[in-house]
Amino acid sequence: RRGFVMLWTALDVTRRTFVNLLFLLIVIIVVSLFFSGGVKPLSNKTALVLEIRGDLVEQYETTLRDAVLDNVGGDSKRTVRLRDVIVVLDAAARDPNISSVVLLLDEMQGGGMAMLREIGAAVDRVKKSGKTVVAWSGSYDQKRYLVASHASEVYVHPMGMVMIEGFGGRRNYYRDALDKVGVTVNLIKVGTYKSAAEPYIANGPSDAAREADAYLYNALWSGYTGLVEKNRKLPDGAIAGMIESLPERMENAGGSAAKVALQAKLVDGLKTRDELRDLMIKRGVADDDIKSFRQIGFYDYLSRHPQKQFGDAVGVVVASGSITDGDGGPGVIGGRSMANLIRQAREDDNIKALVLRVDSPGGSAYGSELIRRELELTRAAGKPVVVSMGSVAASGGYWISMASDEVIADPATITGSIGVFALLPTADKVAAKLGIHTDGVTTTWLADAYNPLRPLDPRFEQLVQSSINNVYSDFTTKAAAARKTTPAKIDEVGQGRVWTGVQAKERGLVDRLGGYNDALASAAGRAKLGKDYRVVYVERPVTRVERFLQMAGASAVQAMTIQVKLGLIENAIPAGPVNQVAGDMAFLSELTTERKPFAAVTHCFCGNW
Fold this sequence. Notes:
Layout: H1 2-35, E1 46-51, E2 54-57, H2 64-72, E3 79-81, H3 82-94, E4 98-104, E5 108-109, H4 113-128, E6 132-137, H5 142-148, E7 153-156, H6 175-181, E8 184-190, H7 207-231, H8 238-244, H9 246-252, H10 257-263, E9 269-270, H11 273-283, E10 286-287, E11 292-293, E12 295-297, H12 298-303, E13 313-320, E14 322-324, E15 332-334, H13 335-347, E16 351-360, E17 362-364, H14 365-380, E18 385-394, H15 396-399, E19 406-409, E20 414-416, E21 420-426, H16 428-434, H17 458-483, H18 487-493, E22 498-500, H19 501-506, E23 512-513, H20 516-526, E24 534-537, H21 544-551, H22 556-566, H23 580-592, E25 601-603
Parallel strand pairs: 1-4, 1-12, 2-3, 2-5, 4-6, 6-7, 7-9, 13-16, 13-24, 14-15, 16-18, 18-19, 18-20, 19-23
Antiparallel strand pairs: 8-21, 10-11, 17-25, 20-22
Helix pairs in contact: 2-22, 3-4, 4-5, 13-14, 17-18, 21-22
């Protein structure tokens, strides 16, 4: 008993000591912030070093399992929000103490064409303010180089390269493989060009798919090369000519890809990172404390420009990922949860207009309609709704864009894909090979009409086809009402066909071409907010643990990782398949594990080129 009392006393003293020390630390931090006079102002001739490290995303998204595994490996997976990059560049353009911007793109990953063009446009605004933008990377892939081409000067490491390959690619087709294992995939669709499910029923793309893909890829490639050639002041066709003569150019340059890029005027010089530092020291002000040039980093500068907390606002809801019926997880748009966010924005008296930022290839038709309906109600309540299309806003991504006052697409946005399909796999041949027999008693033929171990009942197939036809009719009718035209005209540009933003504008599917800032300005103008409005991002509630960790400087991903380690989140969302074949098979499997007998899918398998 005496030992227990002593142990309890020791624990109690330790607890009180820890709490008191923690309280004292908080008091010291508060007092130091109070007497420090706030953030130290920037000195003149400070360079903004914008190092984009990680995946470029519309909003933070990761699975909890990914976060844990990445952290076990010693380094959390990094993600960089597009909106943070834009805020920092626009602030630098206005800041008299920022004399130049250095773009370090070595570790930038991901990001669709529209996102990259948004960054490029922000870089152009910095240059327009009279400031020099210098881009550097060890090597540039096609995406990194699009951003770099906007800079005043572009440098690459002497052992690096500029890899511009073009657009397009190949998909895997599984008809023969599925036949060998005895699986039959029954495709029921509307839309000649709706080719998303072709890999499961064919060994190659249909003629319609080839036609549509060629038209799309050529438009994207023309837009890419035209923009790069304009930025680098190169003649029309220079990039295509360089690629055609690349083997000879490499041989003449002694195998140095960096020299080829320099000779082609894709870069302005070959420099190591320390040589870049020496260049910036000569141009700016030396900082002896860090043995470099006077500078401020990305996140330090971002923290100096917090969003306004009070006043009338434009609300922003980000719809990024595939669309499902219920609650969305990381990288997934939940029809119900997204509808709730829109309703929350509608009921917020401080939010006077709404921008829906769409970056989605679609998914569930029902989930898409839940979102569209809430936007329709928001407009009916008197709040303007403007859609800003990101890299992809196709199929279901287009569906959720229809209830708006204005649709603004980037020239490189992938949109359209107005079509519907359902997949009903059966494995009756597998069952026969294995000697599995299925039999029983039902009160009606419909009770067991779709049994994966039996051939598909033609009557059930007819029911599904009727349902898919109805969903397509609903899609085209709603699109016609939104675009002030007829369902027949929508059908002409529908049929599952995918378009670029430019092509969609020509066909009346969007109102105008522009970027995210254009959408914000349009929404504010429609709500008569003037120029001094704030932007509020309406997102899922942040837990108290996440909020505390974010205040301490941790990213959302790191916050989630720490919560998992502490056991504060029990149900981690599993990571998706890591290779294309497994991913394709997983998609097929997901369609058959729904509680409903079948799913009407408005999905476009569109990559972020």
